[in-house]
Design goal:
single chain, Nucleoside Triphosphate Pyrophosphohydrolase, four-stranded mixed β-sheet, ADP-ribose diphosphatase activity, Nudix hydrolase domain-containing protein, hydrolase, Nudix_hydrolase
Length: 208
Amino acid sequence: MSQDSKILSAEDLSTSEAKWVKLKRIHWSDPEGKHRTWECAERTTRGSSGIDAVAILAVLRSERNAFQPSTVIVEQFRAPVGKYVVELPAGLIDEGETAEETAIRELHEETGFKGTKVLESSPLLVCDPGMTTANMKLIAVDVPFPDKLEVSQQKPEPGEFITARIVELHKLDEELKAYESKGYVVDARLSHFASGYVMAEKIRQMKF
């Protein structure tokens, strides 16, 4: 890219002008019977599946153990936070698609890698339940290689500027922590996975 992305200006937006989200006031009753209100953002693009999006954990592996099990992460500018964010490949579910079909498609578009099968599909997850109705599924996808790791060509949609990086799973937590010094922020879902991976290894070895 010839230059980095940056925020040029920002202004308040009325719901009538918004294309993808709208604000909603919720009236609800707490366990003591008290009537309360809450404000949140709601997606306007949710299809009949009831699921907004998927995040994809690609498991890159060699059938001959030529390289360490790895995954692919992406870097892209996110205007709401005004910074480049490190995250898992992700995307919105198209009408008529399952979450698993979306995961295979989006992984190929954003990273070039072709998943051969879904290893695991999470239950429905909420992203920021105190702020938004947005939900998603986390889909783990198998990406095997006969021998050595081969980098694939991305197929981004117009207007998408995504950098894909391959990271060995056992180095993921360390790599993500290094991003802060470079001015990036890390998506919470990716950070939680990396921390869980490290903790699982510590528990396995009982090293605290």
